[in-house]
UniProtKB/TrEMBL annotation:
Coiled coil: none annotated. This is (Z)-3-hexen-1-ol acetyltransferase-like. Keywords: Transferase. It comes from Camelina sativa (False flax). The keyword Transferase applies.
Amino acid sequence: MSGSLTFKVHRQKPELVSPANPTPRELKLLSDIDDQEGLRFHIPTIFFYRHNPKTYSDPVAVIRRALTETLVYYYPFAGRLREGPNRKLVVDCTGEGVLFIEADADVTLVEFEEKDALKPPFPCFEELLFDVEGSSEVLNTPLMLMQVTRLKCGGFIFAVRINHAMSDAFGLSLFLKTMCDFARGYHAPTVPPVWERHRLSATVPFRVSHAHREYDDMPVIATEHDSKGGNLVDRSFFFGHREMSAIRRLLPPNLVNRSTDMETLTSFLWCYRTVAIQPDPNKEMRLIFIVNARSKLKTPPLSPGYYGNAFAFPVAIATAGELTKKPLEFGLRLAKEAKSSVTEEYMRSLANLMVTKERPSFSLDGTYLVSDVRIFSDIDFGIWGKPVYGGIGKAGVTDFPGSSFYVSAENRNGETGIIVPVCLPEKAMQRFVKELEGVFSGQFVSNGGTKSPNKLMLSSL
């Protein structure tokens, strides 16, 4: 288990890194997609880089310098969030800067790999991205926290946490790729950043044209994450060619050909996670399949440099009984319908809903949220190449464990696949592992995709 690796991290005092040149002092409104309640938290990512024996460059110095140059172009990140009338968020572009920590750890990258610890949950994660006291508040605090930790081998770990109201994964990747541009010696970003948050703000009259069931006002009732299921356990699962082939065999061929790997894997996890949790058969289970809406916005198109939140939380809904008794294709069709529901009009409707419903958060009860963050595998600072691992630090966000993030990674055999961190109560995790072992061992080759998760469970226990 990854938790068996322990090491010490020596950190310098956190400092504020500000833009290299003077930047405008102004107020900038966030969009109505940005400032919904469900995005008012800080989200961490982490990157591991190997030593390059051909260079003596200090990663701390390279990254700090690239950060100061990047903040000239992304100067709102050097400011602070304030809240105006009707809880509207605005960036006060003060130029104060972002928090930066220089650190050293008495561990090598090989030790991480030997302990199978290059996947979430990472050992000593809180030491690799230190939560500076008071820094994780939403308002009036730095919008970004970075820590660069040198390793004994010459490699390093780069961790960054951002206020999610400022950017989504795509927006953060634009910021980090601009840092990579400056680290490589460029004098300007390859993709210039664009603010234009008005493009995703409500329009008068406030017309809500879609149902947006993801924001249903639901009573908080007992969920699968209550203590009755035991302590919560974090574990990562690798899905390569063999695993994806086994999942496809549970589906009719005609549906497999019309479904992406993401759709197939997401519906599979939703169904099998439900089996493992063993909820009441009549309980409503929800799948939120995060959709990047940039390609949907066409009149006019959203700029390639737009770094605000531009995604939606479409939801698929079914009872636990339906998900566990019906064939896997039932869940897959629901997931595909939810994903395809996101259109330009949907996004306009969503922005208007935020204003008319006072910026609600998406419903959590019975919800499993999935997001594809494989984009982080390309954060290449030049000298050290692409990260060995680049993505989310763990399953779950803040106090909501029911979320998973897809990360691109290699297994021990050098095969590229997808790592998915999952967080479940201990007993549910044991059942989940057993379920997956049953599918991947090839015992359950279905005939035309008629096997249901429940049938598989009965034969695998």
